[in-house]
Amino acid sequence: MSAASNLGIALAGVLLLGACGGSNVPELMKLRTNRPGPDEFAIVPTKSLQMPSDLNDLPTPTPGGRNLVDPTPEADAIAALGGSSNARTTAGADRALIGYAMRKGTDPAIRSQLAAADLEYRKDHNGRLLDRLTGKTLYYQAYAPMALDQEAELERWRKLNAATPSAPPSGAAQAAK
Known about the structure:
2% of the residues are buried. This protein is mainly alpha-helical. It has helices at 3-20, 73-80, 95-101, 110-124, 129-134, 139-143, 150-159, 171-176. Among the domains are: 69-106, no CATH class; 111-163, no CATH class. Pfam families: DUF3035. InterPro entries: DUF3035 (IPR021395). This is DUF3035 domain-containing protein.
């Protein structure tokens, strides 16, 4: 046998052995999965417990009623955006906030449109053959063109004199120190 054929056989052996190895890539990082799983985004932590000032003033327990430590994502989001924390009880208290958020209209089919666009994008950016054969994660590779350059965006907003939070130092800034 020639040296070239020996090299070819050795390369094929290495590829086959590499394909047999297990993958420790988390399921969330894979673009395609063949097994059903839980919805990771349905798990919402509860709020922290608080001790009341007077235990005699506690309300009577209501079976099936609301608990003070139950998550309230809508009210929390409204409060984080500067709205009234009691928006559910005050009719129209956040009409200006909701109006501003909806100023360009809403599209009831946005979820299905985004899912279809994402599927089309993933079909066009399927990854390299060896990546697919070995089960290598394609997540970062597929979505790299859509990634936000955080430092450039921060600089852009600062040039517009917008109030921006402080940002952690970049890798270049840390290397210069």
